[in-house]
Prior knowledge:
Two copies of one chain form a homodimer.
Chain A: H1 5-13, H2 21-27, H3 40-53, E1 56-63, E2 66-74, H4 76-86, H5 100-105, H6 113-141, H7 150-183, H8 186-197
Antiparallel strand pairs in A: 1-2
Helix pairs in contact in A: 2-3, 6-7
Chain B binds a DNA duplex through residues 2-4, 6, 20-22, 25, 38-42, 44-45, 48, 63-70.
Amino acid sequence: MPAMALRYAILTALIEDDLSGYDLARSFDKSLGFFWKASHQQIYRELKLLSERGWIRGTAEAQTGKPDRILYALTDNGRSALDEWVLQKDRMRLHETRDELCIKLYNLSASNVGYLHARISERREEMMRRLFLYERIRRNHYADPDSLPLRRKGVYLALMGGISQGEQYLAWCDDALRLLSRELPEVDKAATASADTA
Amino acid sequence: MPAMALRYAILTALIEDDLSGYDLARSFDKSLGFFWKASHQQIYRELKLLSERGWIRGTAEAQTGKPDRILYALTDNGRSALDEWVLQKDRMRLHETRDELCIKLYNLSASNVGYLHARISERREEMMRRLFLYERIRRNHYADPDSLPLRRKGVYLALMGGISQGEQYLAWCDDALRLLSRELPEVDKAATASADTA
DNA sequence: AACTAATATGCAACATTTTGCATATTGGCG
DNA sequence: CGCCAATATGCAAAATGTTGCATATTAGTT
């Protein structure tokens, strides 16, 4: 059987709560989604497969003020499939950044230094936003890690990994922006400076 | 036209040297490959397409002691396609870890804590090896970043990103291993301790 | 002389992810 | 009332990545 980590990410998301496809799509935009992204199409397709396989059970539910939705719950079969998967060998893909920006940096030149500076600034902003979110989750749910049940300690570790990686990324952005601004043509430099104070 | 970052990663690798498919496959195992991995099949397929499109030119070359190979060189068309791509909008995928291990951590339990501890140890080892490599490249080629030509400064930035991310990852592994060992059953704990000293 | 390893290239099938489109319901705004 | 936004679900095709196999050359080993 193939790797199909998304499948197990979905099962994992269903451990504590019953969720609809829509809920899952949104939760893959945060929390678990920090480590694994998925579009709603991937999720709906997978939900159908999991349902046919009997690993989850869907129940249609009428909602007031909104279209009906299907709430999915983990079955016993699904639960044990998940437990088995955790113990299965995974291919150790060690943090391949897979960010086009890195390749673009290999092409740094006078004609694109301004553009790349701007892209890194954007990423810095975006990471900042994400870190606020992480930190909020941490404060609200993981303030006292020692007192957490074992499973939540695992989630806590993943979260802390995300936070410290994010902080490292911010620091790198700052270094990169500093180096690049020294190479910026004077015109761009002025524009960037005024954008910073705006 | 689609993103196809691999295509441009290959062109980037050909900026300074002419390389064969085999050379590329190996260079995607280091250097550029820290940011973008590719199998030899992906590379050969792409080389053929790029060749047909006239962005690279392949020249068969007899070698003494080895089978013939095809050396590829960037053409002027390829060079300008690459320059244009750098300035094109990329989708900002912010460091999605995409490591199954993170999802598995969300499933931490007494029955898998030993297994997960072992997997994190492996990753720590692997990252250590990678960092040695990074550091060697840094010492040999980027010891004095200020004196580098502009393009190489970009490569330097990517490299430094890799190094500091790697160091952050090592620190996270240590934290995680410490937390997990406190949850290890006594038998496993003894086994882990003796493995450490071996 | 057969066997193994490294070099060097490639196809076909499959798995996975992304993109573009399509549809329906309800609530609020102007 | 018509339009827009959010909720909620889904198909089909294209792009991208992985796996398994196949082939050929040369060097060194058994």
